[in-house]
Design goal:
701 residues; alpha/beta; eight-stranded mixed sheet; seven-stranded mixed sheet; 21 helices; 30 strands; binds 5'-O-[(S)-ethoxy(hydroxy)phosphoryl]adenosine
Length: 701
């Protein structure tokens, strides 16, 4: 590791301190949490019992006896002895008071299709009937895993809740992922049932989605897992949106099967608090995505509690989280959190700018949305394509969220002034797939907002910045380091599915003080993000410190991208680097070196892009593929990603004296930067923060 010259912690980051914005008296007056006494209740002296307050938002079949069990550290167990059912908590228990209320408002992408309101009563029926089908027709039972590869249609939450009703562990794969990526996740989770749909709308086009199921079957089989049953929902009544072949005995239309289950009620299975509720795969530092396993009691308590206090959801609100349910944000803050609180949750099928960038604001106006939740990449895109659109529509948000990437203060201000019309509070919520729910943000009625900074740790969560050697980096020092969480919280994932050793290795080993210790204080959680803490205690998140690239809020592992590229016959070596992108935050550029005997060509570049589309999905498609004569390497043969990242971003190559082949750097630089000038892709001047990120990229190599 001789090439690591500066650690993240040693980099002093200078940025302009932003001014504060205060919540309005109107917001404070109605907020779920406007009494600062709540901070006292969740102070460290009351940990872990403070989380009883979150758990008490749920209905338990059996109350728990131990709030936090640390005996098998760091595999924390929350609310031990407790039993509950997640589907009961999100559906059945609301029937008495809210039977006729919309649980889900589904907005199809085509504007001539009407919004569908699914009441709690109807959700109850649909969940039960589908649960009956899963139980009787598929023979599924508690503990089995099922993979869902579904877009943003109401059948997705129905299927998730039906699984939860039976104690079946769902694993939803983002609909935009390729069939092969889905198949890998099917195999890793050991699912024999795949739930999908014939098609869905995206950007005005009815996509054939069922074709991906065949690719998934093939990929799963290669990895040793047979998909026995494919359940296919239908996008349009009585039609099929797919031309894919239909395998008798394997493929089944859900609507046809459901005829046998009309009106069937399945009693919710009472599950132990620590029973897994779902898996959510995410990218990491190896080629293989990891299945983050989330619990029933801890997770549901945590998303209910954070939805109440940080999303400020009241039962009478119309809440729209404009994320995809295929990501953790959608699981926690479209489905489980809001439905646990009996809210009305809007689910939109399509893209933000279809058919024009006024679409989100028309939806908000029509449905009376008053809480809005999205990612910086969407905000940037809406600002670019329709900066004045929000003014044309008569909607009023009381509360808005940003999540998934750092938000530039300038973008934040547009969000606040134009989208929020200066009236809405904003919470900038920092967290991860692994975490279940928010880790750092502001309590909306009780704390001021600061553009570009998430905020302090949330209730009962104590983050701390550590340097490489484990020493705390004090607030206000102007120094960045690795953000860690000192304590467990109920939403933390339980393990990496099937790989408990990776769970410890990736998240706990770095800062663990004693591997035998059963004291949580010895097990800080390593998040993999660089951050710094200002004098006021607010955290500013800088981005990943590992080799993960955050494209439009989607985590892509460089190793994953590289191994997809290496499937192209002509490619000998591959390296993925991030480039700063004004809309997507970061985009991917692939560098490839060819095997002897092959010449660079546009065909090979296209083959690389196609391989990434097929093996991961279109979201991962590289902005550019650069075929280079050789990769810059250390004397021990490691590819120096930071050097090519510097070239792609025009930020300089840094020190190259330790390279085995320094001469190649100039050739690459000349070629890549020359092309970029021609293609009109010279980046704007980068901020100090972006510069540091590019310089630090690949330091784990
Ligand atoms: C980044 C999404 C800055 C961060 C919920 C993290 C953020 C990764 C923020 C997790 C934020 C998330 N400000 N960066 N508010 N929220 N990130 O697993 O790098 O898809 O580690 O979870 O996104 O992405 P994931």
């Amino acid at each position: 590791m001789s090439e690591v010259q500066v650690s993240e912690a040693e980099i002093a980051v200078h940025w302009r301190e932003e001014g504060y914005f205060a919540p309005s008296p109107n917001f404070i007056g109605q907020a779920n949490s406007s009494d600062p006494a709540i901070f006292e209740r969740f102070s460290e002296t009351n940990f872990p019992e403070c989380f009883k307050e979150y758990a008490d938002l749920l209905t338990w079949d059996h109350y728990w006896h131990t709030t936090l069990d640390t005996s098998n550290a760091p595999f924390w167990k929350w609310f031990v002895g407790g039993k509950l059912n997640a589907s009961y908590n999100c559906v059945d228990r609301h029937l008495a008071k809210h039977r006729d209320k919309a649980a889900i408002l589904w907005v199809p992408e085509p504007e001539n299709e009407v919004t569908q309101a699914i009441t709690y009563q109807e959700l109850y029926k649909r969940v039960n009937e589908f649960a009956a089908l899963l139980q009787d027709f598929c023979g599924l039972k508690a503990g089995d895993r099922v993979t869902l590869h579904m877009p943003m249609v109401p059948d997705l939450p129905v299927a998730m809740l039906a699984c939860a009703r039976l104690g079946v562990i769902h694993s939803e794969v983002f609909g935009g992922f390729s069939g092969a990526a889905c198949g890998d996740r099917v195999a890793d989770s050991g699912s024999s049932v795949l739930i999908t749909i014939d098609g869905y709308y995206r950007n005005g086009e009815l996509l054939d989605h069922k074709v991906k199921a065949d690719e998934a079957v093939a990929a799963a089989k290669k990895a040793g897992q047979t998909i026995k049953t494919i359940l296919v929902f239908r996008r349009h009544h009585g039609q099929s949106a797919s031309k894919a072949n239909w395998v008798e005995g394997r493929d089944f239309w859900v609507d046809e099967l459901l005829r046998d289950y009309r009106g069937r009620i399945v009693p919710p299975v009472s599950m132990p608090a620590e029973a897994p509720l779902f898996l959510m795969y995410t990218s990491g530092t190896t080629a293989k995505p990891k299945g983050c396993q989330h619990s029933t009691g801890g997770y549901l308590s945590y998303v209910a509690g954070t939805s109440k206090y940080y999303q400020d959801i009241h039962p009478e609100d119309t809440y729209w989280c404009f994320a995809d349910i295929g990501w953790i944000t959608g699981h926690s803050y479209i489905v489980y959190g809001p439905l646990a609180l009996a809210a009305t949750s809007v689910v939109y099928e399509g893209v933000p700018t279809y058919p024009d960038p006024g679409r989100p604001w028309r939806i908000a106006e029509r449905l009376g949305v008053n809480i809005f939740h999205t990612a910086p990449t969407t905000i940037r895109m809406l600002r670019k394509l329709g900066p004045d659109e929000p003014k044309k529509y008569d909607y009023h948000f009381k509360h808005m969220t940003t999540v998934g990437e750092p938000i530039e203060p300038d973008v934040w201000r547009w969000y606040h002034q134009v989208v929020g019309k200066g009236e809405a509070v904003i919470v900038d919520t920092w967290w991860q797939t692994e975490n279940g729910g928010f880790l750092a943000t502001t309590m909306p009625a009780l704390m001021k907002m600061k553009p570009g900074s998430a905020g302090p740790g949330v209730l009962g969560v104590y983050p701390q910045i550590l340097d490489e050697t484990g020493n705390p980096v004090p607030a206000g020092s102007g120094k960045a380091g690795n953000i860690t969480i000192r304590n467990p919280w109920p939403g933390i994932f339980q393990t990496v599915y099937g790989q408990p050793e990776r769970f410890i290795e990736i998240y706990y080993k770095k800062y663990n003080k004693d591997s035998k210790s059963k004291d949580w204080r010895d097990w800080p959680y390593f998040a993999g993000d660089g951050a710094l803490q200002a004098e006021d205690g607010y955290f500013r998140i800088l981005g990943r410190v590992d080799d993960v690239i955050n494209v439009a809020g989607h985590r892509l592992g460089t190793k994953e991208l590289e191994s997809a590229t290496l499937t192209v016959e002509e490619v000998a070596e591959a390296a993925a680097v991030p480039v700063i992108d004004d809309l997507r935050g970061r985009a991917v550029e692939m560098y490839v070196a060819l095997k002897p005997g092959y010449k660079p060509s546009k065909q090979i570049e296209d083959k690389v892009a196609a391989a990434i589309d097929n093996l991961i999905g279109k979201i991962a498609r590289p902005k550019n593929v650069w075929i280079v004569p050789d990769m810059p390497k250390t004397r021990s043969g490691k590819i120096m990603r930071r050097v090519i990242a510097g070239i792609s971003n025009f930020t300089g190559t840094g020190d190259i004296t330790t390279l085995a082949n320094p001469e190649v750097v100039q050739t690459i630089q000349h070629h890549v930067q020359g092309e970029k000038v021609q293609r009109g892709q010279v980046p704007r001047e980068l901020s100090a923060q972006e510069l540091e990120e590019i310089k630090a990229f690949g330091k784990v190599d």
